[in-house]
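WARN retry 2 of 3 for item q-0093 after timeout on previous attempt; input resubmitted unchanged.
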Amino acid sequence: MNKLSLIFGKLGLLVLLCCFWTFEAISGEITNLRIGEGSNNIRVVFDASEEFDYNVFLLDGPKRLVIDTENINVARSLEKIKDRNHLIGQVRIGKISSSKNRIVFDLQRPAIIKKVFMLAPQSTFKWRLAIDIVTANERDFSGKVGQSHAFSNFSRSKKAKTTSTDTKGKTNNNTKKIIVIDAGHGGHDPGAIGYSGVYEKNITLATAKELKRQLDKEGKYIVFLTRSTDIFIPLRQRVKIARQHNADLFMSIHADSAKNRNAKGLSVYTLSETASDKEAAALAERENKVDIIAGVNMFEQSKEVNDVLISLAQRETRNRSSELARCIELEMRKSVRLISDTHRFAGFAVLKAPDVPSVLLEMGYLSNKDEERLLRQESYRRKIATATVKAINRYFEDMKHKSLF
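OK item q-0093 returned
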């Protein structure tokens, strides 16, 4: 009896220890769920106390959005969320194993997953998992059903950088934003010729390289230059380069010139509303209307629907471009001279990508003797680049919160 008591006592202690270890291993929790609705898209956001593994995919019969989670508890209160929207219906939560949970959303119509990403704690927010889904036709939905098309970070090291595949089949690093920097002019096009004869194309290229160097040093961006040597690139090709890289931001760098030799100061341009419509429509035509706006196959839509989709995408892109211009103005004001009405609007061809937030930076006037002298100085160009990096950091920080309602 003594031996049996000792054995059962040890078994009991072992069970208690196992329970304790299980509790320790899964101490975090998904505490909240929010659903935001756009014109043809839904963003689902989970708030969690810590980072967790996820596997997000679609199932059919009936249509469902499925999120498998690992090593995180899921609050049952999430099933009571009643955010009204046109795409997602009831939510259900179940356990797959001791460490895995499954969250299932009923879909009220066909949809595809556009993007899945994890956001680290910022401000008052803790960890967040964001899932973007967009309405689709039956054929596109059927082509994305199953775990073979899942967005996942399962079986990853906690220190590894997560990746996801977008609807264009490109693999993007979720932790890094893609920035394309365009050095204005080049080759046979010198741009403005300065007070002492300096070429704008050389000033812009030197600044673009310095800006890339500083952004690379930040460690959170993937940066491309439209040109790294003295070559000529057609304006619309520069836009195409930004779109090919699936850029999160496009910046074209220039230096101004004026008949008035006293004119001086930095300015930043974004696309005017009246300058954008025909160009974006032409772009959609040239690229066969496929995947131009938010993953929507425009070839299957009527002209009226396409016009609305283009207009909505442009509006969002213009809003983001204006936000970036605002950040640039705020940071530049601390260190360089600005012109009055610093943020201006124009129909520059390089600003006309309908889905890439874009700005054109005029660093100053080469026609002004004093400002040309400054722009020729490496230290001054470094100062402009430093302020630009701060503005870009500020922009993406602001967008994290604004895009997540």
